[in-house]
Amino acid sequence: MRRLIGIVIFLFLIIVALYADERIPVDDRNFQEYKGRVGIWVLVISPANLSYYVSKFCITKKDVEDVNGRIRYREYLFIPYSEKYIKELEAQGIKKETVLTRKSDFIWPLAQVKNISSSFGQRGARFHTGTDMPATQGTPIVAAMDGRVLSTRYEGGFGWTICMEHRDNFFTRYAHCFKILVKEGDCIKKGQVIGLVGTTGTSTGNHLHFEIRYNDIPLNPLDFLPYKENLVNLHAVRNWK
After folding, report:
1. Across-strand partners of 164?
2. What is the torsion angle, in degrees rounded to the nearest 10, for the CA atoms of residue 142, residue 146, residue 151 and residue 156?
3. CATH number of 104-233
4. Over the range 4-32, which residues count as b (16 or more CB within 10 Å of their CB) and which as e?
5. Whose CB among 11, 34, 135, 222 lies 3.0–4.6 Å from 139's, allowing a Cys bridge?
6. 143-192, pLDDT tens digit by residue?
7. pLDDT per residue over 187-216, tens digit each?
8. Is the pTM of this model over 0.85?
9. Helical (H) or strand (E) element with 7
């Protein structure tokens, strides 16, 4: 009997561990992570441009080479921060975000994702606030998490867009839709079809622009979505942690 009780308690603890909330460090505008280093992705145009970042972040050119390998200009490079620069940011009240959630809360908004055409992070002068997933027109888009539809409207460059609110101040956005199948106020279950992939707005082809936000801070979706084997990132600017 004692052995049976022990087994039940052990299984209960495993279930609690699997479903317990955890604090997940996430990429944002100021702090991104690559190969175990904290820094930021930037488009480096020239040697002078690289020297600017080396000086600003209190690092050396070798630090950049250690992370990126051979330096190629007019490409995105990961520029690591020095401990000194991180402390300067923290002194200004800028710290790496952590979010209390469960990774199991989120699923991929498309059933079949084989590559990512544009990752979360810096894109020249602008910051790309989501992850782009190519798919054929009409591919079903599903809700990545249980929630309520906050808005369904045409949002300029994002085209036809669905915004959803979720528990604990999380929000998701699904942009460039060909067709929207839900309306504002609808309560949606995770995995429920909410729209179809398209290329509305400013877009070069059919794809889904997907965002996860926390208190309106854009987060890297790859920090929350289940790991996928053999996923091809066409921009090759980030590895999973």
Report:
1. 149, 172
2. -50
3. 2.70.70.10
4. eeeeeeeeeeeeeeeeeeeebebbbeebb
5. 135
6. 999 999 999 999 999 999 999 999 888 999 999 999 999 999 999 999 99
7. 999 999 999 999 999 998 999 999 999 888
8. no
9. helix 2-19
